[in-house]
Specification:
Helix content is about 40%, strand content about 25%. The protein is built from three helices and three strands. β1 (about 20-25) and β2 (about 30-35) form a beta hairpin. The radius of gyration is 12 Å and the shape is globular. The protein starts with a helix and ends with a strand.
Length: about 80
């Protein structure tokens, strides 16, 4: 799931090298933390949070295979 989020975010931002994605795993729930540049934060979140919500929806739909819940946190470096 980490690579899925990383691929999506890198396709959105201008500075791909600054994207850092980490996954903090648990048994039934995992947290995926995404760090981008301050300049790219608005692009990843989107207008009214629609881009971030779309990323969350994609992760939610693809998580049915693993039967695990994912929380995505987006922040600037």
């Amino acid at each position: 799931m980490k690579t899925l989020v990383e691929t999506i975010v890198k396709s959105i931002v201008d500075n791909e090298k600054s994207v850092q994605v980490s996954e903090i795993g648990g048994d039934s729930t995992s947290i995926i933390e995404v760090f981008v540049d301050k300049e790219d934060l608005g692009k990843v979140i989107g207008k009214n949070g629609k881009t971030a919500q779309s990323i969350r929806n994609i992760v939610y739909a693809s998580s049915f295979k693993t039967k695990k819940r994912y929380t995505i946190n987006i922040d600037a470096k």
